[in-house]
Design goal:
Layout lengths: L3 E4 L5 E2 L2 E2 L1 H13 L19 H15 L6 E3 L5 H13 L4 E5 L8 H14 L4 E5 L1 H4 L5 H8 L4 E6 L5 H10 L4 E4 L5 H6 L4 E4 L6 H12 L3 H17 L7 H10 L16 H14 L3
Parallel strand pairs: 1-9, 4-5, 5-6, 6-7, 7-8, 8-9
Antiparallel strand pairs: 2-3
Helix pairs in contact: 1-2, 3-4, 4-6, 6-7, 9-10, 10-12, 11-12
Length: 291
């Protein structure tokens, strides 16, 4: 259902508003460059700063441009179960293919609470759900056992695992079954993640290097591991550089270098990447052969 290189799309802003024309061109470029899916309104898309109307319209625009060529997995998670359910309904209304629902952040629910949260969303969802586990941001960490429990629900289709623990991939395969889809949430670990049983990556770097990230994922799918390692080495400095300042500031700067005119603007509390971060990005883009 979901595989390969799936960019967690940035949201371009101009004059404080969503730059819709820029976003449309960006989405089309992602598809023509080989991306295997699209995630609008995720963390990299600055979803926390979007209004409900902007959230809905960005998903709708992504669906309209994709035209079924690749799946659209809409970011819909909040720390409120009721609010998450409403976002999932809105995504379904505008034609999303699936939703990405993050582990509730800040309020640090128990494992029983996490199971109840995802169960309630799944019970009301008409769309497949990708569970997003990123404990470095949410504090809460959905355990292997809890993931296995909710994976029995027919609407829980996959996990985006950003724990940074490659051992989780094997543990989750054993607990959730081989058919349960595992996607890496860390670009730098995607090589090892797929070797352990993953099938793709919801990627930050793919915003900037969609063709290389797609080629990298396809090489692994085809079993061309030597080629995949070479692409990993080519991309690795960029994976690191895109997190030398608060994300997605370095990514927007990188896009302004590979797609001249792409706006670097972010919404507060995020600000433009530092000069040191920009230097790191420039060096990494040069190493990757992108500038």
């Amino acid at each position: 259902m979901f595989f390969g290189s799936i960019p967690a799309l940035v949201t371009p802003f101009s004059g404080g508003r969503v730059a819709e024309d820029t976003f449309a061109e960006f989405v089309e470029w992602q598809i023509t460059e080989g991306s295997n899916g699209l995630v609008p309104c995720g963390t990299t898309g600055e979803v926390a700063t979007l209004t409900a109307d902007e959230h809905r319209e960005l998903i709708a625009q992504t669906v309209q441009i994709a035209k079924g060529r690749v799946p659209v997995i809409a970011g819909c998670g909040t720390y409120s179960t009721a609010a998450s359910i409403e976002r999932v309904r809105a995504a379904a209304d505008v034609g999303a293919d699936a939703v990405l629902v993050v582990v509730p952040y800040y309020n640090k629910p128990s494992q029983a609470g996490l199971a109840a949260h995802f169960g309630a969303i799944a019970d009301t969802s008409s769309l497949p759900i990708v569970v997003y586990n990123v404990p470095s941001r949410t504090v809460a960490d959905i355990s292997v056992e809890t993931l296995a429990e909710i994976a029995r629900h027919p609407k829980i289709a996959a996990v985006k695992d950003a724990t940074g623990n490659l051992g989780r991939v094997s543990a989750q395969r054993l607990a959730c079954g081989e058919e349960f889809i595992q996607l890496s949430g860390n670009d730098d670990l995607a090589l090892g993640f797929n070797a352990m049983g993953g099938v793709g990556c919801i990627s930050v770097t793919a915003n900037v290097a969609p063709r290389l990230c797609s080629d990298f994922q396809k090489a692994m799918t085809d079993g061309r591991w030597d080629e995949a390692r070479k692409l990993q080495d080519r991309l690795f400095p960029l994976h690191a550089a895109l997190f030398t300042d608060a994300s997605p500031a370095p990514t927007k700067y990188a896009l302004s270098r590979v797609r001249p005119g792409f706006p670097q603007q972010l919404r507060l509390p995020l600000v433009e990447a530092s000069d040191a971060s920009k230097r790191a990005v420039d060096a990494a883009l040069g190493h990757a052969g992108l500038i």
